[in-house]
């Protein structure tokens, strides 16, 4: 990454605060934070919302199987068919690119997550950084950028599908906007035991 770029002044969505949610209780707020009202990311956000709703459905169905052992056999069979159908739908890559496992882990989180919406102009960047007690997931929504995580760098050009990038705790990472870019950072505190 070129060091002569100017550091970005992050524009946070909503502008006055970082949003904290529990993904198992606050799916509506999660979906609301994704929407930025811009038509350039409308298709991307719509697809990601569908993926989150499908994951929520899958978790609900799994919970029903665990909590209600005496389901009628026809209902139990329908649920048992639907769970892998959702996995197959999400694995095709129609809704987003990146790790389905990462998105599933976020949706299954029982703790609070912080979500910060960023908008960077071409040439702005987030300086290399690392966090010893945070895991982050970067959800690219629109635009073009270069992302470095550890010793890997990659260029991204968003075309209607969100890109999901995992940043493990302690891993150095940065983002450089090669065109205007919109993205979401989801942060999860990692407690040492």
Can I get a quick summary?
By secondary structure, the chain is α+β, with helices and mostly antiparallel strands.
Largest sheet: 8 strands, mixed
Low-confidence segments, ≥5 residues, pLDDT <50?
1-5, 9-17
* Average predicted confidence as pLDDT: 80
Instruction: Tell me how many strands there are.
Output: 8
Question: What's the N-to-C terminus distance?
Answer: 36 Å
| Class by SSE composition | alpha+beta
How many independent structural domains?
Answer: 1
Taken in chain order, the helices and strands follow as EHHHEHEEEEEE
CATH class term: Mainly Beta
Annotated CATH homologous superfamily: Jelly Rolls
* Strand composition percent: 25-35%
Please give the radius of gyration in angstroms.
Answer: 18 Å
CATH fold call: Jelly Rolls
Question: What is the level-2 CATH architecture name?
Answer: Sandwich
Counting DSSP H or I runs of 4 or more residues, the number of helices is 4
Tertiary shape: globular
Residue share in helix: 25-40%
Report on this model:
By secondary structure, the chain is of the alpha+beta class. The protein has one domain: Jelly Rolls (Sandwich). Helix content is 32%, strand content 33%. It is built from four helices and eight strands; from the N terminus they run E-H-H-H-E-H-E-E-E-E-E-E. It has helices at 27-34, 42-67, 73-91, 100-108, and strands at residues 19-21, 96-98, 113-120, 125-129, 134-149, 152-157, 162-167, 173-189. Strands 1, 2, 3, 4, 5, 6, 7 and 8 form an eight-stranded mixed β-sheet that branches. Helix 2 (42-67) packs antiparallel against helix 3 and helix 2 (42-67) packs across helix 4 (100-108). It is globular and about 60 Å long. 27% of the residues are buried. Mean pLDDT is 80; it is low at 1-5 and 9-17.
């Amino acid at each position: 990454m070129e060091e002569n770029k100017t550091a970005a002044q992050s524009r946070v969505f909503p502008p006055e605060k970082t949003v904290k949610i529990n993904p198992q209780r606050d799916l509506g707020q999660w979906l609301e934070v994704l929407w930025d009202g811009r038509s350039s990311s409308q298709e991307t956000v719509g697809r990601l919302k569908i993926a989150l709703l499908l994951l929520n459905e899958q978790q609900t169905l799994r919970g029903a199987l665990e909590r209600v052992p005496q389901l009628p056999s026809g209902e139990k069979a329908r649920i048992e068919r639907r769970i892998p159908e959702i996995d197959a739908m999400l694995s095709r890559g129609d809704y987003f690119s990146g790790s389905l496992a990462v998105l599933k882990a976020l949706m299954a989180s029982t703790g609070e997550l912080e979500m910060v919406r960023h908008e960077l102009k071409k040439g702005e960047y987030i300086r290399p950084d690392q966090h010893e007690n945070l895991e982050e997931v970067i959800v690219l929504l629109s635009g073009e950028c270069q992302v470095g995580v550890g010793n890997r760098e990659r260029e991204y050009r968003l075309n209607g599908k969100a890109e999901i990038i995992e940043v493990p705790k302690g891993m150095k990472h940065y983002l450089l906007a090669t065109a205007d870019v919109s993205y979401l950072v989801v942060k999860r505190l990692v407690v040492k035991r």
